[in-house]
UniProtKB/TrEMBL annotation:
GO terms for biological process: NAD+ biosynthetic process. Pathway: Cofactor biosynthesis; NAD(+) biosynthesis; deamido-NAD(+) from nicotinate D-ribonucleotide: step 1/1. This is Probable nicotinate-nucleotide adenylyltransferase. It comes from Methylotenera oryzisoli. GO terms for molecular function: ATP binding; nicotinate-nucleotide adenylyltransferase activity. It catalyses: nicotinate beta-D-ribonucleotide + ATP + H(+) = deamido-NAD(+) + diphosphate. Its EC number is 2.7.7.18. Belongs to the NadD family.
Length: 216
């Protein structure tokens, strides 16, 4: 069964935290390819001042030397709000029902998962790999969840990565990755303050930001 990872986000801008997480999850879960999907109009973010085209171009530069990473611009080509369920339905139409899709998500984002558009349908079309915060475990994450999500996690949880290969959708797993304390917010502020962002993101992305005078 073909296995595809999905990493969505604003990528405003993309940095090594995104890239390292994607690589470690690909290795851990034996995923064939990862689609980086920039959100054009994210529902849970305030207005993003940098255009989707710029953010996609930075992702393209950042992943260009990794044959397992792919820039997927389907949300940029869609009008309206960038809902995850619509992206999954589009991927399913393209890849068929046999591919295993795994959506990567931070455990902190999962605490609000029940506010997502048509959230109860999402697991019908993919698995979810939750990325734990440093020094946390499944039990600690569960304590932060509303009751409805605690039950949802318990019902669908697996620690066996092979489950994600043996079915196309329906499981939630939790994985720890190397803790890189890098944030897009801090990077944007560093550019405003003309501070160095070297070693926080690929040099090609830094050059692009400077060339196009972003985050000034």
């Amino acid at each position: 069964m073909k296995t595809i990872g999905i990493l969505g986000g604003t990528f405003n801008p993309i940095h090594y935290g995104h890239l390292r997480m994607a690589q470690e999850l690909a290795d851990d879960l034996h995923i064939d390819a990862i689609h980086f999907i920039p959100a054009a109009n994210p529902p849970h973010k305030n207005s993003v001042t940098i255009s989707a085209e710029h953010r996609a171009a930075m992702v393209d530069l950042a992943i260009s030397n990794n044959p397992h990473f792919t820039l997927d611009v389907r949300e940029l080509n869609r009008t309206g709000t960038s809902y995850t369920i619509d992206t999954l339905l589009s991927l399913r139409a393209e890849l068929g029902s046999d591919a295993s899709l795994t959506l990567f998500m931070g455990s902190d984002a999962f605490t609000q998962f029940n506010s997502w558009h048509r959230w109860q349908e999402i697991l019908q079309h993919c698995h979810i790999a939750l990325v734990q915060r440093p020094h946390t475990n499944k039990n600690q994450t569960s304590k932060l969840l509303p009751k409805i999500l605690e039950e949802f996690l318990h019902t669908h949880y697996t620690e066996n990565g092979e489950d994600l290969h043996n079915s196309a959708a329906g499981y939630i797993t939790m994985r720890q990755v190397t803790a890189l304390d890098i944030s897009s917010t801090a990077i944007r502020e560093a550019f405003k303050q003309q501070a160095s962002t070297r070693y926080l993101m690929p040099d090609s992305v830094i050059d692009y930001i400077k060339t196009h005078q972003l985050y000034k």
